[in-house]
Specification:
The protein contains three helices and 35 strands. By secondary structure, it is mainly beta. The chain starts with 6 loop residues before the first strand and ends with a strand.
């Protein structure tokens, strides 16, 4: 893809606006050309911000305005269950962890009684070998745990045996796996492999930091979906039977860093950020795999975050940050509804953090920082919707919002707490026990039971107090596993699931 405009193609016209912006490649945007209607909407050049042809079409949705974070979490869980139950399918229950950062992408669990400390001899329920390495996170629905991995090529030294045999220098040997385990016992129920689809990016540079299985799967209680970059998107039933596959492109960004985003489900639509593969975001019918819409823009090239769903005046929007801007898209059509310019340049890896209509953006080069913006509106909302801006940022991990504060540990091992209302720094502390060199933390924090659970890559899982005063409560390590821990934890049924490049672990309160 080339050019500076976000261009949306979809099967039917829907709510939202269409416009095109020219000039700088990082500003850009937008959309038109509906595949079947032949409509072409244009207008709104950002160079001079000349606006034309804005259209608004109403959506029939329940008008629910959510402001409190805890109430939003409860409604997200209830809504998912009601939606799936109405379709006669298995229900995603409140205790499930069905995708990246859990229900609603909020990175928060309501469970209590979780262990604060564990080791190979304490509170370890089970440990099982994985068929390959990976930086994705596990997910849990019912008594099923799903995790992705890769093998055959580019496997870090010291990683256990892989499904495709020993790692080689032959990129044609690359395979990716989706594996299903039983939560209660750790028993492997099935694994499915997908061969690499050339041309894959070579195992060099930054891709050696995370590998070829960085996207976390998502499940709806009946099917599980995995995103394998250039090898496409794949859907499987609960027993591992392949249902459909979809290609999303085989391009590479100018940095060849590989795929980093995870899948998101919104009602009947599976949303994929294929920025690395085709500079596009796409929506697929979750049942058939049919592509419903595609929004393309050159500005997506270095946008690695997972799309975030947020509610604005009762309507769901997809928020994603790209270098220089944040966008709000219609999840039904892929059409751009609004955008705001910001000063975060370079690659944007963290996902947007949503608290009702308030969005928090992190990333860019190290000096880029962070900001808040109010979601919603039409067209360019930079002047009316931009909130605070700050110098504190996360380069890889997505922060978590807890009781009005944003928390994270950056890739250099510094713990942050920022006031969500003002962006003011509450604390910044070097986490003791972490190496001062390299990138010791990639995982995003998960909040539960008054704590923050954050795996470090080489020095155990860090447990911090979820309060605006720094307190390291524990640092938990397992014996005999020197491989990388890059994924975030999943929490379900009183258990904490985490993965390394070698093993999948289940932690919970066990009898002394």
């Amino acid at each position: 893809m080339s050019g500076s405009s976000l261009h949306a193609e979809n099967d039917s016209a829907g709510p939202g606006m269409s416009f095109r912006a020219a000039a700088k490649p990082h500003v850009a945007l937008c959309q038109s050309e509906l595949r079947h209607s032949g409509l072409r909407d244009a207008g709104l050049r950002q160079a001079g911000l000349r606006q034309a042809g804005l259209r608004q079409v109403g959506m029939r949705q329940v008008r629910v305005r959510i402001r409190r974070h805890s109430l939003l979490l409860a409604i997200v869980w209830l809504g998912a269950c009601l939606m799936l139950a109405s379709g006669g399918e298995r229900c995603v229950h409140a205790e499930d962890w069905p995708g990246f950062r859990g229900p609603g992408g909020l990175a928060a669990s309501r469970e209590t009684g979780l262990p604060q400390t564990w080791s190979s001899r304490e509170n370890l329920v089970w440990r099982v070998a994985l068929p390959g390495a990976g930086s994705s996170s596990p997910i849990v629905v019912g008594d099923r745990v799903f995790v992705t991995s890769y093998s055959g090529y580019g496997v870090p030294e010291g990683t256990a045996g892989t499904a495709a045999g020993p790692a080689t220098s032959d990129i044609a040997r690359l395979e990716r796996q989706l594996t299903c385990f039983e939560l209660s016992t750790g028993k492997q129920l099935w694994t499915r492999s997908v061969k690499g689809q050339g041309p894959e990016d070579a195992y060099q540079g930054f891709i050696t930091e995370h590998g070829y299985a960085s996207g976390t799967p998502v499940a709806d209680g009946e099917r599980v979906y995995a995103f394998f970059g250039k090898a496409g998107v794949h859907a499987f039933d609960w027993d591992g039977k392949p249902l459909w596959s979809a290609d999303v492109g085989k391009e590479s960004s100018n940095r060849r860093w590989g795929t980093g985003s995870s899948l998101v489900l919104h009602q009947e639509t599976l949303i994929v950020n294929a920025s690395e593969e085709s500079q596009s975001i796409r929506g697929f019918d979750r049942r058939s795999g049919k592509e419903i819409w595609k929004a393309s823009a050159a500005a997506l090239e270095l946008a690695y975050g997972t799309p975030t769903l947020t509610s604005v005046a009762g309507q769901t929007e997809v928020a994603i940050a790209v270098p220089g801007e944040v966008w709000g898209l219609n999840p039904e059509t892929g059409k751009l509804k609004w955008f705001a310019e910001h000063g975060l340049t370079g690659n944007i890896s963290p996902s947007v953090v949503a608290d009702g209509e308030t969005l928090y953006i992190f990333g860019g080069f190290r000096a880029a920082g962070s900001l808040s913006v109010r979601a919603g509106g039409n067209g360019d909302v930079t002047r009316s919707h931009l909130g605070w801006t700050g110098r504190n940022s996360s380069y890889v991990a997505t922060p978590v919002l807890v009781d009005g504060h944003l928390y994270w540990i950056d890739d250099r091992g510094q713990a942050y707490c920022v006031a969500a209302k003002t962006g003011e720094l509450v604390y910044r502390e070097r986490v003791e026990g972490l190496t001062a060199s390299g990138r010791p933390v990639y995982a995003s924090p998960i909040a539960a039971d008054g704590r923050l659970y954050i795996p470090s890559r080489w020095h155990g899982v860090l447990v911090l107090a979820a309060k605006p005063s720094y307190q390291l409560l524990a640092r938990n390590q397992f014996d005999g596993d020197e491989s990388d821990f890059n994924g975030s934890v999943a929490i379900s049924g009183g258990r904490i699931l985490l993965r390394s490049d070698r093993y999948l672990y289940c932690v919970g309160q066990t009898a002394k």
